[in-house]
Structures are given as structure tokens and as C-alpha cells.
Amino acid sequence: MIRGSTCFASILAVLAFFTWLADAAPVRAIEIQRVKSPGGIEAWLVRDTSVPILSIEFSFRGGRTFDPLDKSGLSNLLSGLLDEGAGTLDSKAFQTELENKSIQMSFGAGRDAFSGSLKTLNEHRSRAIELLSLALTEPRFDKEPVERMRQQALVALKRGTTNPDYIAGRTWATAVFGNHPYSRPSLGNEKSLQAITRKDLLKVIKERFARNLLIVGVTGDITPAKLGPLLDQAFGGLPERTELHTIPEVEPNLSGDTYVVELDVPQSAIRFGQTGLKRNHPDWYTSLVMNYVLGSGSFSSRLFTEVRDKRGLAYSVGAGLSPMRYTALISGHAGTNNENVADSLKIIQTEWHRMRKGGVSANELAHAKSYLTGSFPLRLSSTDRIARTLVAIQYHDLGIDYISKRSSYINAVTQDDIANLAQHLLDPDALTFVIVGKPKGVSATAPAPKI
């Protein structure tokens, strides 16, 4: 949940005006520095003196996957409460400090990591760091904000019961991941949310927030010498080590079934997919280029061209790589009128067959490489985006020189590489579909799991 001043964007806009020409020019080489604090906390830093801003992004390995079965939704609830009062500051006082000093602070609970973000003007960075430290080490979890956030989650769950996209996502996760923690809803369910106590929230802080699980990326107008003590101030109060319990790998249930959830709506929500590659697989960049052509290339992908552009069957369609800690998928989505579902599914399967049999053309390969290398600098267009990229690079162990080498990895992919990978990886017969709506001409091959 994002917090902070409503005037912060205005301040940034004024500052950005003076650096507009620089931002419009080609992205300069980014120098990443390893910084180790006096207390031994490491961060990667990209120094940017163009504006007096500090952005800190961080994550702890181990996300909502580690929530207890009967307390699903715990991490998500926690992410909305860490800035709702800490130390001697209750919720109102804490939020007032953020607002008055134009400090942005937010937290998020992903499947495999719990993340945090802090963005502040340099003149307030000392206090901002103090507030972050309090949020991580002395959260209050007072009754009023806990119940308020719990009710927000319960309302969101209730809205989801009539939302085709939400139902499709939940049904997909349950069908594919079975009893594995990946199948659990990020928001939890009504019973689990009602069961979460203040003690449960404090237990997460104690058992999962530790320096050995911490990854930090920093961008802004600060020197390594000044950053070191700030790292200790922000994170030095955390335990030095903790050990997470073991989560098993999961073999997704992707046997080519079609699951249909009847819902009286004019348009169906579709989820589909098959097994993919983890981020550390040697063929990752080949799969990245291949999938851009197949499904992730927005308006230029084969799925978009064949399903929407040429035939007008769907208002949205695409597929992307979904690498996770304990498995990996190629997962896709589509949205279409009930009458067009059957034809849409046939074309998706046809395109899977076509890629497997014929790979990509020289023009498709060149376009994919051009986009994937040329669009990457957009991820580095602000201090917080750069800091998030630094965290991601560390999380996936890509190396401190990744930014400078990424283009070479993509440009090294050949048509033969894609042809070989497509033959071994893509399996049209294993494509598994979840459809929520009243699709015409589509029959379920297996009963949809309850969610």
C-alpha cells in the first residue's frame, strides 16, 4: 500500500523540469557501487545528483508463500499496516509525519518476497530513515488500523466473488498448484482473515525480517560514505539471521484440461498456460525473445495479431513468462465475448503449434531484439525504478554488470536457438485453460476446483 504526500508528485514535477533535456537524451551509463555499512549491511547504489532525492527499495526473501495455511492473507494484511503507527506514533501521527515531510513509504507482499519502498527529499531523509526503522522494528498494530485494513481486505474479497478476472485467477492457481502454497489467495479468505491476530503480525516481523534475507537498492543524491550509516539506522535494528522453513518445489498440474466456471456475464475471462523456465535457466533469454514474438509483444505479438487484430475475437490477449522461486510457467490471458471463446482458444493453440514447428522469422527476431533492448532504459527512468531494478538484479543473482551486459545476452539469441527451444519447451497439448463466463461451444474436460 502506497503512502505519502499528495504534493510529492508536484515537487518532483518542478524538479524534473530542470532535468527534462537530460532525461530525453539517451540513457547514460549507470555505475553501480557496492556499499557496506559499518554494521555490515550491503546495498547497491547508483548515485544521481540531478535532483535532491533519495530512493530506497528493499525486499526480504520469503513472501506470502510462507503464511500459515490457516492464516492466508497475513503478509498482505501486514503490508498495509507497517506504516499505520510505530513506536510512540499512532496511525494518525505517523501518517501526518509522512504527509508533512513529503515522504513516500510503501510495502508489498509478493509470492516469494516481501518488499518495501522509501522515497524522500534529502532535507528530510534523516527523519524518513527513522520512520522506516520504526515501521520495521516497532510497528504498533493498534486495534483501529488492524480492523480497518481487515475490513478493506474483506470488502475486496466480496467484490472478487463477482469479478470474472479474479475468479479466473483464483481458479487457475488452485487448478495448477493444488495444495502448494502458491495456490493460496494473496488476500486470504474470510475465515483466515478473521483469524489473524496482532500476535500473528508480530510473529512475521520476528521470524521473517532479518538482515540475512535483506536485499537493498538505493538511488539518489548521496555518497557511499553517507549511505553506510543510514543503512545501519534503517535496518540495523533487525535480527542478524533467521531461517525460513522449507517450501517444496511444485510440479504444476498442466495436462491440457479445460476448466469452465459458469458465471452469468456477457464476456468470458480466460487464463491459460504451460510449464516455463526459471530465471536462472541457460535458455532464459531465448525464451524471452521467443515469447515476445508469441505473446508478450503487445500489439506486435502473434497472439494479438491473429486473435484480435485480424479477427477481432478478443479485446485483450497475451502471454508472458512467469518465473517463480519454486516453479515456472508461461501464462496467458484473454478476454472476449462468450460467442468468441471457442475460436479464440483454437487460435491460441494454433499459434502454439506454429511457434513449436517453425520458430520465428528473421524480421520477427530483429523486431523482438530491438524492442527488448531499446525499451529497457524505460525501467531506469526514475530513482525508484533504478532502485527496484537493483533489488531485482540481486534477487536473481544476475551480477553487478547485468545492466551493461543485458543487451548482449538478447542479441546473441538466434533463430536456431528459438527453433530448438520451441520444439522442446512448447507443448500445445499441455496448454491448460480456465474460462469464467458462459462460453459458447466450449466443454469442460474436468470439473473446476472450488476456490
Describe the structure.
- The protein has 17 helices and twelve strands.
- A hairpin with a 5-residue loop joins strand 2 and strand 3 (42-47).
- The two termini are 25 Å apart.
- It has 451 residues and is α+β, with helices and mostly antiparallel strands.
- Helix content is 42%, strand content 18%.
- The chain has two domains: 8-235, 2-Layer Sandwich (Cytochrome Bc1 Complex, Chain A, domain 1); 258-437, Cytochrome Bc1 Complex, Chain A, domain 1 (2-Layer Sandwich), CATH 3.30.830.
In short:
The chain has 451 residues and is α+β, with helices and mostly antiparallel strands.
Would you spell out the secondary-structure blueprint of this structure?
Blueprint: E1 2-3, H1 8-17, H2 20-24, E2 33-36, E3 42-47, E4 53-61, H3 74-79, H4 91-100, E5 104-109, E6 113-121, H5 125-137, H6 143-160, H7 164-177, H8 190-195, H9 198-208, E7 214-220, H10 224-235, E8 258-262, E9 267-275, H11 284-296, H12 302-309, E10 316-323, E11 328-337, H13 341-358, H14 362-374, H15 383-395, H16 402-411, H17 415-425, E12 432-437
Parallel strand pairs: 3-7, 8-12
Antiparallel strand pairs: 1-5, 2-3, 4-6, 4-7, 5-6, 9-11, 9-12, 10-11
Helix pairs in contact: 5-10, 11-14, 11-17, 12-13, 13-17
